[in-house]
Design goal:
Structural class: mainly alpha
Largest sheet: none
Radius of gyration: 21 Å
Number of domains: 2
Shape: globular
Helix content: 55-70%
Number of strands: 0
Order of helices and strands: HHHHHHHHHHHHHHHH
Distance between the termini: 30 Å
């Protein structure tokens, strides 16, 4: 199976260049919002009460400008930019700065490929948080000078175009770009590339989720093309095992309990919600392992990802309260476990 760890793989090594950064992160971590706080937000009677709760947090500095869903979203995007700016300030490895912004770059690749194919503008969907400026990207796509992109992005463009025109499928385009993204994220670029280890774990869990979804749709024949080739787990196990048999095959792996409980809920409710929560809980647990480190880039990366998750959870709870979704349903949508 290529898995030789009981719960989490080993990672990193001491790096005195990050002594100051870890000290800064330990201070910033104290302001991360807890799950219990998100549950409290979920119980807000209306947006006004929700924003009063946020007055107790570092987000209070933004609230004078928050009036509605659009301004709340602008607040979240501003906070994300601030977190990325802090990462850039504290990270001394340039390749890791690109990895921190990679998902936004690959997202933009998907948006611009769809725009090119449909001959429509989807500029509102573009993110300014990638490592390549939006205007530079748009110019490259306009002139079809894809070789001007960094290699990992030009390969994604080529893969996306090829996948789309084979079956005229945006799903295939998206999968091809995702595969290119995870190949980049899981390829170590430093001696202590925590990004690579994290995203190998994530690749496995995404593949298991894809397995469940496609098996439920009766489409096992499409499974091979949808699996990421970048995890620790041998994909042949997913290709050759039925869902019940997979419980036994994964029992002695770190993913055994996640799959068993997620699969049970999936059979009963037809939903991947429980699997998603267990998946995110496992990955967040891996990020928490960095709390044992005093010198290294890993706590900085973990903080970045916790902040991304926090911003996502704020979006979910705010929209839920705005549209008067029940607190129970909002809580069930939360995957943040800090």
């Amino acid at each position: 199976m290529a898995i030789n760890f009981l719960k989490y793989p080993s990672f990193g090594k001491e790096d005195s260049r990050y002594t100051y950064a870890v000290g800064r992160i330990r201070v910033l971590e104290k302001d991360l919002l807890s799950r219990s706080f998100f549950e409290r937000l979920s119980e807000a009677g209306d947006v006004e009460e929700y924003l009063k709760f946020l007055q107790e947090t570092p987000y209070s500095r933004y609230l004078s400008e928050v009036k509605d869903e659009d301004s709340f979203e602008r607040m979240l995007l501003t906070e994300r930019k601030e977190v990325l700016r802090t990462f850039d300030e504290l990270c001394v490895d340039e390749p890791l700065k690109k990895k921190a912004r990679a998902k936004f770059d690959f997202h933009n690749i998907k948006v611009l490929l769809k725009s090119k194919i449909e001959e429509k503008s989807f500029d509102s969907a573009l993110s300014s948080d990638g490592s390549v400026k939006i205007e530079d990207l748009k110019g490259i796509f306009k002139d079809e000078k894809y070789s001007w992109l960094p290699g990992y992005l030009s390969r994604a463009v080529e893969a996306g175009i090829g996948a789309y025109y084979e079956n005229k499928s945006y799903r295939d385009l998206s999968t091809a770009v995702d595969i290119a993204m995870y190949e980049f994220l899981t390829s170590p670029v430093t001696d202590n590339d925590f990004f690579a280890v994290y995203h190998k774990l994530e690749s496995d869990l995404i593949n298991i989720r894809t397995y469940l979804r496609l098996r439920a749709l009766g489409s096992p024949e499409t499974l091979r093309s949808q699996l990421l080739p970048t995890g620790f787990l041998d994909n042949d196990i997913l290709l050759n095992e039925d869902p019940d048999g997979l419980v036994d095959r994964l029992t002695h792996t770190p993913y055994g309990k996640i799959y068993e409980e997620g699969y049970r809920f999936f059979k009963e409710k037809g939903s991947l919600r429980e699997y998603e929560k267990l998946m995110k809980g496992y990955l967040n647990g891996f990020l928490l392992e960095t709390r044992k480190i005093d010198m290294g880039v890993e706590p900085l990366i973990a903080y970045l990802y916790f902040k991304f998750e926090e911003i996502r959870a704020l979006r979910i709870t705010f929209i839920g309260v705005s549209y008067r979704v029940s607190s129970r349903e909002i809580k069930e949508s939360l995957t943040v476990v800090i």
